[in-house]
Amino acid sequence: MKKILFFDLHSAHNDEHALFHNNVYKLILLESAVKLGIVQLIPDYETAIAAEEAAMGVDPGSVFTKSIQQADLYRDRLDRSFGLLVESKTIDFDPAVCEAANRVQRILKQYGIVRKHSYGDKTKAYDTRNKKLNTEYAADVALLGGSALLAQQNMANEEFLNHFGDRANEKAVAISGNVKAARAVTDDAYEAIIDHVNALALINGDILYAEFIDKVNYYVKYNKDVLAARHGRKSNDTSAASETPAK
């Protein structure tokens, strides 16, 4: 069974430490926290990364801005996919499916192209529209084979809210200057995620998590090699210095 390897980051330079966590965070965005089963752990990780960068004097906004943009694009892609599914079913060979598709399509048209709205208006529109589809038109959506896709879009909308609501606020990422303490918090948040993914892979099998595990382990192995090479150079330099005869 695959598992994410342990990695002790204490000897990494500050920039290496921050870059490692940013790379892992980007992998989570690409894989989807929902898919990995770690949605509840992401806010702490986001806040910790931003606090660490703030302590280093790096603008924390970049990480959260990217996470919000990624989450927004993802929910929009799912919305587009659902719309295309409904449209394709309006010309289905089964008259019952066509009728169901036309009813669902009328609801979609009532709300217009939600993807063009601002963040706040879009979030509210997705939520209101999808609640109607999941209640009054649940049978129609199921007949079209769109229930799972609509559920995924709902989760994506909620995930966007998590990113938007937990974005670095001034109190959460106040610059303390204590990089060492900030790093420890980031490492704890990372380890909680890794332990959770490894546990899910053990319980459910690693098929759903294999790609994410492999990519994280790539960064783990790369950074381990960098640290090992640096340690080797230091050892060689120390040995050479001790062997140099005094003049």
Q: What is the gist of this entry?
A:
The protein has 247 residues and is an all-alpha fold. The protein has two domains: 1-60 and 174-232, no CATH class; 68-167.
Structure write-up:
With 247 residues, this protein is mostly helical. It has 2 domains: 1-60 and 174-232, no CATH class; 68-167. It has helices spanning 14-31, 33-36, 42-56, 61-89, 95-111, 119-135, 138-143, 147-165, 179-204, 210-243.
Which helices and strands occur, and which strands form pairs?
Layout: H1 14-31, H2 33-36, H3 42-56, H4 61-89, H5 95-111, H6 119-135, H7 138-143, H8 147-165, H9 179-204, H10 210-243
Structural class: mainly alpha
- Based on CA inertia axes, which overall geometry fits? elongated
How many whole angstroms does the radius of gyration measure? 24 Å
Q: What fraction, in percent, of the residue positions are helical?
A: over 70%
Mean pLDDT score, rounded?
A: 84
**Termini distance?**
59 Å
| Largest beta-sheet characterization | none
Characteristics:
mainly alpha; 2 domains; 10 helices
